[in-house]
Design goal:
The complex is a heterodimer. Chain A is an all-alpha fold. Chain A has six helices and no strands. The two termini of chain A are 23 Å apart. Chain B has one domain. Chain B is globular. Classes of the chains: A mainly alpha, B mainly alpha.
Chain lengths: 224, 227
């Protein structure tokens, strides 16, 4: 856990995010029909999901560690990762909806990708409800860890696999161009990949701060 | 005893217990019959419903919604009826994998029987517009298997968290929505008598979801079980 107390990666995260903010809005992008300048949303929408996947994945790792060792800190880290991930989930949905308004014509157009993302959000809302329904700390930690591990693969199937099999309007699904070798301009990669790393690090940073606050509260409340 | 023997023994015990009381089976069967009858009366308040254009669509969706709620009710019982002392006894004689496997298999058997009966009852009340009946039955079987695998694990979690019905619904519905969407699509194709080859991909996805769910249940149940 030493990693979260170091400074270098936080500076890196800030630099990368500022770079993508400026470069994402100023650099050249290919001019495509329908998309036009909204293609720049790629730099802000997709990294939200990358950040969400990273913190959710870290949360699953902590859940597994909690189940193996039973240390309370791991459970706290896991739940704070989920809380941070849900914030990025909402940001990803909102940026996607804003983009959809300009390209598909509606904020919510009953698209499979949007619907499964909403279902996956319900899955994690259920996690929060499940946590609050149990009072005993160890039992709560154990059951919510189990549910968290159970929910993660289902979330991946919902967001990544199912929409690909149906006719979604979303890029990358239903034969639409997205990250394929020929589709993505190399000049866009220069901005997109740093954005992935930057936002994922920001997500980890937020989660680590929340975890540290939670840890202080936890230590205050324990009886020695 | 190895895993296989333990599973078979536990499965026999589940079936024997059910055979003696017939509580879960009769209860859910009555639940299905009453729901179907309520739907029948409610829909027939409007004249000409059967001949209307949307009838096959409603027929299909309504059937799956009835099956969904019936299976939630049937499977929520699977861990609810176990008392604390009995669980402790299982802990002494069998491994956790055998217990969850036997529960899953038992629920699959129960749900298969129930959903086939439900389909027959449903077809009696609502005129069956299906073209490819065999394929529709296969879809129903697939559906009952998927519901059983998902709900068994969820009911195990819910039973540890205070055993309330709200939690069961909240936890299971996000998981079951993709499954039921796939099932409705599959069964609609069977109903319209489309080419069976079209559905191969959906069936493979359904089976893959089942494999994932069973694998995670097998991995996670040993942790869930120890109190």
């Amino acid at each position: 856990m030493k990693f979260i107390y170091q400074t270098w990666w936080k500076i890196l995260a800030v630099v990368l995010v500022f770079y993508t903010l400026i470069a994402g809005l100023l650099f050249h992008v290919p001019t495509l029909p329908i998309l036009h300048e909204t293609i720049r949303n790629l730099y802000f929408h997709v990294p939200m999901w990358m950040a969400m996947f990273s913190v959710f994945f870290i949360s699953v790792v902590f859940s597994i560690m909690y189940l193996n060792t039973g240390k309370e800190e791991y459970d706290l880290a896991s739940v704070e990762c989920v809380n941070t991930g849900m914030m990025f989930f909402v940001l990803g949905l909102v940026t996607g909806m804003m983009w959809a308004k300009y390209t598909w014509g509606e904020y919510w157009s009953n698209d499979p990708k949007q619907n499964s993302a909403a279902i996956a959000f319900l899955l994690y809302c259920a996690y929060v409800v499940l946590r609050n329904s149990i009072d005993e700390e160890q039992k709560r930690g154990k059951i919510s860890s189990i549910y968290n591990i159970f929910a993660f693969p289902i979330m991946v199937v919902l967001i990544m696999v199912l929409p690909r099999m149906t006719d979604s309007l979303h890029p990358g699904n239903g034969g639409n161009p997205a990250f394929g070798k020929m589709d993505l301009d190399n000049r866009m990669r220069v901005v997109l990949y740093p954005a992935f790393i930057g936002w994922a690090l920001i997500g980890v940073w937020i989660a680590s701060i929340r975890y540290r606050i939670r840890l202080i509260e936890h230590k205050k409340n324990t009886i020695n | 005893m190895n895993l296989f023997d333990q599973t078979i023994h536990l499965l026999k015990k589940e079936i024997l217990l059910e055979w003696r009381s017939k509580y879960a089976f009769n209860g859910v069967l009555l639940y299905v019959v009453s729901t179907v009858f309520v739907c029948y009366m409610a829909f027939n308040l409007n004249q000409g419903f059967v001949d209307s254009q949307g009838y096959p669509l409603v027929w299909n969706v309504l059937f799956w919604v009835i099956i969904l709620f019936a299976s939630v009710n049937a499977i929520a019982k699977s861990f609810l009826q176990e008392s604390k002392g009995r669980l402790l006894y299982y802990y002494a004689i069998a491994g956790p994998h055998a217990i969850i496997l036997s529960k899953i298999i038992y629920n699959i058997l129960l749900m298969t029987l129930l959903s086939i009966l439900a389909l027959i009852i449903y077809s009696v009340f609502f005129k069956n517009p299906t073209v490819d009946n065999l394929y529709y039955c296969i879809t129903v079987l697939l559906g009952s298997i998927s519901f059983s695998t998902v709900f068994t694990m969820i009911s195990a979690i819910a039973s540890k968290a205070g055993n309330n019905g709200t939690l069961m619904a909240i936890l299971s519905f996000p998981v079951i929505i993709p499954v039921i969407l796939l099932l409705i699509r599959l069964s609609k194709r069977a109903m319209d008598g489309l080419d069976r080859g079209l559905s191969t991909q959906d069936i493979v996805t359904l089976l893959a979801i089942n494999v994932i769910v069973v694998a995670t249940s097998l991995i996670l149940f040993p942790f869930l079980w120890r109190d």
